[in-house]
Amino acid sequence: MERWDGTTNRITVLHDAFGNRPGLIKDWGFAALVEFEGRRILFDTGNDSSTLAANADALGVDLRAINLVVVSHRHGDHTSGLGHLLHINPDVPVYAPAELYGVFGSRLPGHFYPRRPSLPRSMQYYDGEPPDVIHHGTPWPGARFSWVEELTPLGSNAWLIPVVSEVPGTRELREITLALSTSQGLVLLVGCSHPGIERILEAAAAIDDRVYCIVGGLHLVLADEPEVRRVAHALRDNWHVQTIAPGHCTGEPAFLTLSEAFGDRYLYAGLGESVPVPRPAAM
InterPro entries in the record, alphabetically (predicted)? Predict the structure, then answer.
């Protein structure tokens, strides 16, 4: 990876389980560095702090220079490097899904539960005198979290798109996609696409119905082959996705099917590789 000169727009994979770049540690999980419009955004933090640190160092990425972090969802293979990042870059803003009882911490009004003052004080929560706000804990108590629950502009042609999964096994899981608005359409950076990539595309259409590229995990790793083929052809023929750079939980059968469906518009995005991002859309 070439040193960043502040003008190159690209997405570089820092954590994944496949690739052909020597000197990097492969592990299940995902993290990517986004360099766009003069900012450095870390999208997800991988499965292990030491792996994130080692791969960043090998690629010449200074994690202390990250401007903000986006955590797509709460699973450990996307969050486990956050402690290391916050140790060396403690004031960096972190955008995470808004979840009442999520690992990122949250808050509820102290009166959220029905009360029974007739009970003895020893049977009442907080002895019958709850605080105004009940804060839920997090493994990262010092983090500057911003909880995302609606389409959120980040400025400079970047957006956060939250979608809630309705898929059995991940029902109610909240996941954030990072959308970059470019001259050729949206570049969508996805963590796992647990809600389904087509539902994410539906939500992204509120910004732009043109999708230049999808980068990241499509969660087809355990899908049967007819469903893999259906999704691949739908992305190409119905959603008119121009290029695709799948990784992480997309799955080996889907890598093959997508590469056949997209041909030379399939972009290899293994560990350590960079996917070019077109110039930003005109404001």
Answer: DHPS-like_MBL-fold, Metallo-B-lactamas, Metallo-beta-lactamase_dom, RibonucZ/Hydroxyglut_hydro
Distance CA 230, CA 181 (A): 27
Total residues found in the chain within this entry? 283
Q: 0.85 cut: is pTM over it? A: yes
**Domain coverage including residue 256:** 10-104+140-276
Four-residue CA torsion sign, 216, 218, 221, 224: negative
Whether 190 and 177 have beta carbons less than 8 Å apart is answered as yes
Report the sign of the C-alpha dihedral through residues 112, 117, 122, 126, in that order.
positive
Number of compact structural domains in the chain: 1
pLDDT tens digit string along 74-111? 999 999 999 999 999 999 999 999 998 889 988 889 99
| Domain assignment of residue 166, yes or no | yes
Q: Report the CATH number at residue 258.
A: 3.60.15.10
Return the SS3 of 252. helix
| Selection from 279, 170, 278 nearest residue 215 by Cα | 278
Contact 44, 16 (CB under 8 A): no
